[in-house]
């Protein structure tokens, strides 16, 4: 099964029953798979008129009581960012997979890239927070899609699966465990008295219940700065309350959210920080470097946002350098550099997209880092 | 003027339909949105729909604020995206009645693509479009419906573009219920919304309304009352009118009426049909088979009908007390609306028969008080 199909299967396993999408290479296979599977499992697929509509429909579906997702890549993601802001502001759980291709603009429609890392985090205007995960294999596409839904439901936040064309189109064995072995966070709908109903709780650290249309709570949600009742309150004071909450429900729980994959990081002189398909190329470079006697650690970011700042800060004084290969002109390397805070070198191994790195190039960077 | 706001809110007949804790609203004096929302609230009450099962979605702008004032589940979305959000809600829970209430800039400018596609799919939602020919919230810019030659802040020398005719647009895109009224035609607006709420498929209601602060002032067309007077004199009632003939010229005649009311499978009915072919009769959507959903719908319909009958009976009882004396056959009683039988199947027979008599009575009364001092009539409802 390829990564795109695995995302669709992961969504179904996580309880997603609504999918709105618009065709775009290299992500379309996810939509196709969901469209094919939907009637069998009692789910609904709709191909919308554009990506603006797709994400808007997800917001509607989420408040209509369903777990919802869409899939896209760069150009479509650009169209979605406005309503990612609305979803973040209204604390709407939904999942977006971005199967990245080369940009900017139409760029490289059929070729791989990791150029949307910053857009995923900062694409919409204003201060808000999201969670993003970066699978490196079709199996992880399945597993992380389930996890994306779980995080999305618990923190009531849009979660983005930031994969890439290579992983999306890569065929590998994917094991789908029996349903009872898959941990799924169900939709948590409020059921208390109407007078106490609040669609938001600004000191919530996760787990604040949703509500669904038709339950009689007459919820109101708006993209305007609002109070816990959902009504507009447009003041500097309220903005402080809302934005602090949106930021801190993720930042404050970063330790619970972040997942990393590490190998021989402790005691290393050089640590290669990578994610997605690039981490699989990095493995080859790391193996070769170790054969040369260089002490190289492997640090793979499974959770890309929130960024694992704390771990980078811990490692920085103990090593000579971080090496950061990524299929972009250097995006996450800035986060690594910021985390390192000048306590060690940070070396970017950039790539302008269209292919994965040559492991030799990463190996060269490791050698240089070790000097 | 001093009003005991707390008492007013508590006693308001709209309590339970409008969020009285959100009053006063932001709309300007003379704006048509208030009477439209009133008509909407009235229509919801009369429709017999369970208010719990009603969702209102708005976009951005003056009309975009409607969602914030109605006491139902409501979503105030981003600019232009009310229709796809409504689509998502309807498809996530087909038992809900979903209404989009927004302005023409929102629905036909920035959101125009969603309008035509929802109509094309015959998505089972109601779209109420307040058309005041202007972007009010941002200060009176030209919109896709501003008549050619009208002044707007971004067409200070007169609009040189061609406007959309919205009934024609909706018709071409596939809407199965289309009506247009002015915000003055409160009774017809109410009845039309009631019909649309009961209609299966995509309903589009255009409500022409005065923007006193911007459009009227900038074009020196007087105030809200002058515009109501204008509507009174310049609307032409044409049920079933070919939508190609519904264009609005600057200060020209406004064709109003119910233009389209036809049956066509909705999006979800089409999905069901396709899925049954594929999966067989045990096909389920969200865990429910088609017969199960149909049975639920039938039961809900019966409850709606019972509630509606009760409302109408109460109305009937009240109207019998009104002595209908002055039913003169006077010209302005255009709202003998139903002298032509309303077209199509969706007109509930009871309503069609009852409303006109009352409408006539009320209109006549209104005209009587209105004649001597032009402005009292319009001020009256604001008491």
Q: What would you note in describing this structure?
A:
Chain A is 39% helix and 19% strand. With 371 residues, chain A is an alpha/beta fold. In chain A, helix 6 links the parallel strand 6 (131-133) and strand 7 (158-164). Chain B is built from 14 helices and ten strands. In chain B, helix 2 (33-47) crosses helix 8 and helix 5 (104-110) packs across helix 6 (112-120). The longest helix of chain B is centred in the C-terminal third of the chain and has 32 residues, at 290-321. In chain B, the strands form two sheets. Chain B has an eight-stranded mixed sheet with strand order 2-1-3-4-6-5-8-7, with helices on both faces. Helix content of chain B is 43%, strand content 13%. Chains A and B meet through strand 1, helix 3, helix 4 and strand 8 of A and strand 2, helix 4, helix 6, helix 11 and strand 9 of B.
Compute the number of helices of chain A. 13
Give me the number of helical elements of chain B. Answer: 14
Structural class of chain B: alpha/beta
Query: What structural category arises from helix and sheet content of chain A?
Result: alpha/beta
- Tally of individual domains of chain B: 1
* Quantity of strands of chain B, as a count: 10
> What is the CATH class designation of the largest domain in chain A?
Alpha Beta
CATH homologous superfamily identity of the largest domain in chain A: Thiamin diphosphate (ThDP)-binding fold, Pyr/PP domains
In quaternary terms, these chains amount to heterodimer
Portion of residues within helices of chain A = 25-40%
Quick rundown:
The complex is a heterodimer of chains A (371) and B (383). Chain A has 371 residues and is α/β, with parallel strands linked by helices. In chain A, 39% of the residues lie in helices and 19% in strands.
